[in-house]
TrEMBL record:
Its cofactor is pyridoxal 5'-phosphate. InterPro entries: Aminotrans_3 (IPR005814), Aminotrans_3_PPA_site (IPR049704), Class-III_PLP-dep_AT (IPR050103), PyrdxlP-dep_Trfase (IPR015424), PyrdxlP-dep_Trfase_major (IPR015421), PyrdxlP-dep_Trfase_small (IPR015422). It holds the Pfam family Aminotran_3. Belongs to the class-III pyridoxal-phosphate-dependent aminotransferase family. Keywords: Aminotransferase, Pyridoxal phosphate, Transferase. This is Aspartate aminotransferase family protein. Gene3D superfamilies: Aspartate Aminotransferase, domain 1 (3.90.1150.10), Type I PLP-dependent aspartate aminotransferase-like (Major domain) (3.40.640.10).
Length: 414
């Protein structure tokens, strides 16, 4: 079956990039991918932002081969890798985050966090607050936090506040702080779920002044903070966690993408008093069939060992400066808008000339030209998203950026 026949058997819900510019990859090394039609790519997608160490990392593979020969799933009895991983997580996360649970997907960790909050918060204070334009996953509970519903879904009664980006004007930020203070005053809100740097529909780096004021409001009113670090945690933005760019002290943290370097393992970390609260903390409630399976734990441990040893967060910050200087060469036109960049995480919106409406058609053409010239990245509706491995070399990064800039200039005629 060729790729086009294969696509006919997949649902129309698979990604836009795959549907428009399909490829099959048979090999990868570091930030490079190789397709079946013998093309080499610089990979700016890192498998949907997951491979922080790049593809087929030797140390992780070596440890995995050993783990494969041990039992794969002994439920949550597991093995020594988990205790070593917990030691690592204790170093990477803030001190007060002292208890962890392991799951298989980001959405599952978010769902667990919601359940924990609803169990921990006193009756009468179980209303949650979320950011407008948030994205927290695709399962029903997580989707309910996104502020968008598919037809047929019931909209949950979460409070929603605007989270202004760093480019907002002072008066827009003032207005958002006043609104947040007003909304959070309702007496029923016990927790806020937030991404301090939002992923999707673009990259929104939320204003420092807004976030720091929000943290003060939450402290004053004893509103718990649940930080969704699924996408931006573990070095992607130049710090271990994106909330460290702000004066935030979250009570719960969900992190995922970088943890297993592409393998599905995710974690929810929190204060012991919260995760052990009843009935949430009742034995059996925080385990799942595959969550924290032995292979996942082995991969997460070796990934975290390399992450720490090679100081990849610092590296992302340094390489982010190259991205920043290269992106400034893209003259700002109505068609191209740099949505946001931080560390090794950035997004570019592609608009049609006239109105400021995202253009799928133009974005697909840019994506196709990049693919032809050897650059692979994630394409959402009208939006180009980039998050290469944190181990990418400077020359690979520059080479990929040059392909991207050429394709944008070629297709938009700037
Ligand atoms: C911020 C954020 N939260 C939650 C999720 C959901 O994770 P998953 O797709 O593993 O369920 C994602 C996935 O992209 C995400 O970016």
């Amino acid at each position: 079956m060729n790729i086009y026949e294969e696509l006919k058997q997949l649902s129309s819900g698979v990604s836009l990039g795959l549907q428009c510019n399909p490829k099959r990859f048979y090999y990868g090394k570091g930030a490079r991918l190789y397709s079946e039609d013998d093309q080499e790519f610089i990979d700016f997608s890192a498998g949907m932002f997951t491979n922080i160490l790049g593809h087929c990392h030797e140390y992780v593979e070596e440890k995995l081969i050993k783990a494969i020969k041990r039992p794969w799933n002994t439920h949550d009895y597991s093995n020594e890798d988990r205790s070593r991983l917990l030691e690592k997580l204790q170093i990477i996360t803030p001190k007060h985050i002292d208890t962890f649970e392991f799951y298989s997907t980001g959405s599952e960790s978010i769902e667990a966090g919601i359940k924990c909050l609803l169990s921990f918060l006193p009756p009468g204070r179980r209303r949650l607050c979320v950011f407008k334009n948030a994205f927290h996953g695709k399962t029903l509970g997580a989707r309910g936090l996104n502020g968008t519903c598919l037809s047929g879904e019931r909209a949950p009664n979460h409070a929603v506040i605007e989270a202004p980006g760093e480019k907002s004007t002072e008066s827009e930020i003032d207005r958002a702080i006043t609104e947040a203070s007003h909304v959070l005053n309702d007496g029923r809100i016990g927790a806020i779920v937030l991404e301090s740097i939002q992923n999707g529909p673009s990259v929104n780096i939320i204003s420092k002044r807004f976030m720091n004021s929000l943290a003060d409001i939450c402290r004053e009113r004893d509103i718990k903070i649940f930080a969704d670090e699924i996408c931006v945690g573990l070095g992607r933005t130049g710090k271990n966690f994106a909330f460290e760019h702000y004066n935030l002290k979250p009570d719960l943290i969900a992190f995922a993408k970088g943890l297993g370097n592409g393998y599905p393992i995710t974690a929810l970390g929190g204060r012991r008093a919260m995760l052990n609260t009843y009935p949430y903390g009742k034995p059996g409630n925080a385990s799942s069939t595959f969550g924290g399976n032995a292979l996942g734990l082995s991969i997460a441990l070796s990934t975290m060992e390399v992450y720490e040893k090679e100081k990849l967060g610092i590296r992302a910050k340094k390489l982010g400066k190259i991205v920043e200087s290269k992106l400034t060469t893209l003259r700002s036109t109505p068609q191209v808008k740099i949505m946001g960049y931080i560390g090794l995480f950035w997004a570019i919106g592609i608009f049609n000339d006239s109105a400021q409406i995202l253009s799928d058609e133009l974005a697909i053409r840019i994506h196709r030209r990049c693919q032809e010239n050897g650059l692979h990245f994630v394409l959402f509706s009208g939006m180009l998203h980039f998050a290469p491995a944190l181990t990418i070399t400077e020359s690979e990064l520059i080479f990929g950026l040059d392909i991207l800039i050429e394709a944008i200039k070629f297709e938009t005629g700037i």
